[in-house]
Amino acid sequence: MNDFSRPYGAAPSMDMSVDAGLRSFMLGVYNKMALGLLISAAIAYAVGTFAPLTQLVFGTPLLFVVQWGPLALLLGSAFLMRNPSPMSSALLYWTIVALIGASLSFWVIMATSGQAAQTVGGRTLQVDFGTIAQAFLITASSFLALSFFGYTTKRDLSPISSFLFMAMIGAILLGLANAFFFQSGILELGLQLIVLLLMAGVIAWQTQDLKVMYYQISGDQRSMAVMTNMGALNLYIAFVNMFQIILSLLGSRE
Fold first, then answer.
1. How far apart (Å, rounded) are the C-alpha atoms in residues 29 and 155?
2. Whole-prediction pTM
3. How far, in Å, CA of 100 to CA of 240, rounded?
4. C-beta separation of 241 from 15 below 8 A
5. What is the tens place of the pLDDT at every residue in 198-249?
């Protein structure tokens, strides 16, 4: 995404001592990510239950901003934010949080109306708030376990970063091909399971990468602030992707 999301070379030994500074930094990342999830949930509920907001998002061209804005911002930041400031990285994070929150209102509308929806692959989805809560608990439990593994393992996970990136690009391209040409429910389900596994790898690797980067730039307050924002963004996106896939699997009526 930018200088703070590219994999850094691992330290000579991953068996680093845990100090108060590292704990404080990681808590800062997790707290910002948790606040982002909370704000996204509030926006999703507001847009999904308040008719004027629902009409504004889904009945105007703003829908395209909500659908494609996060991707455009992520791609744009890769080229335009080579040396991001704390303010610009925070603005990127909170803008993406707001846009994704608005897009998640789709699930709230389904839960509120009780109506089913069709995926591009022809699968039928139907969820209620109980299903949403169940998906969130599964995602949160999985995230905590994967992040704990990434934080504590002595194995260097950086070699898998290139594989994760290329596999994700391949999954996105195949998903687009399925949406426009194949429209296969089986392929769609297979891609969701693959992306779910990739997100698991991303969470573990990103957690370890944050730990490594902390030791590389510890003491540089500007870089630490930027890294907190970008680390929260990377983990937030992985969490939301995992949540939506799990919710889709639980809500499938096939």
1. 22
2. 0.89
3. 9
4. no
5. 999 999 999 999 999 998 887 788 999 999 999 999 999 999 999 999 999 9
The CB density around residue 18, as the number of other CB atoms within 10 Å, is: 11
pLDDT tens, position by position, 84-118: 899 999 999 999 999 999 999 999 999 999 888 88
Give me 81's structure tokens: 């934010």
With 0-12 / 13-18 / 19 or more C-beta atoms within 10 angstroms meaning exposed / middle / buried, residue 29 is: buried
Domain extents in the chain: 20-251
Q: Concatenate the DSSP letters of all residues of the chain into one string.
A: --TTTSPPPPPS-S-PPP-HHHHHHHHHHHHHHHHHHHHHHHHHHHHHH-HHHHHHHHSSTHHHHHHHHHHHHHHHHHHH-SS--HHHHHHHHHHHHHHHHHHHHHHHHHHHH---EE-TTS-EE---HHHHHHHHHHHHHHHHHHHHHHHH--S--TTHHHHHHHHHHHHHHHHHHIIIII--HHHHHHHHHHHHHHHHHHHHHHHHHHHHHHHHHTT-HHHHHHHHHHHHHHHHHHHHHHHHHHHHHHHB--
The residues, any chain, with a CB within 8 Å of residue 106's CB and separated by 6 or more, are: 48, 117
Cβ distance 133 to 103 under 8 Å? no
Q: How far apart are the first and last CA of the chain?
A: 37
Nearest residue to 67 (alpha-carbon basis) of 29, 35, 99 = 99
Q: Which two tokens stand for residue 5?
A: 């999301």
What's the distance, CA 240 to chain centroid? Answer: 4
7: how many CB neighbours lie within 10 A of its CB? 19
Q: Identify any residues that bridge with 252 across adjacent strands, giving them in sequence order.
A: 125
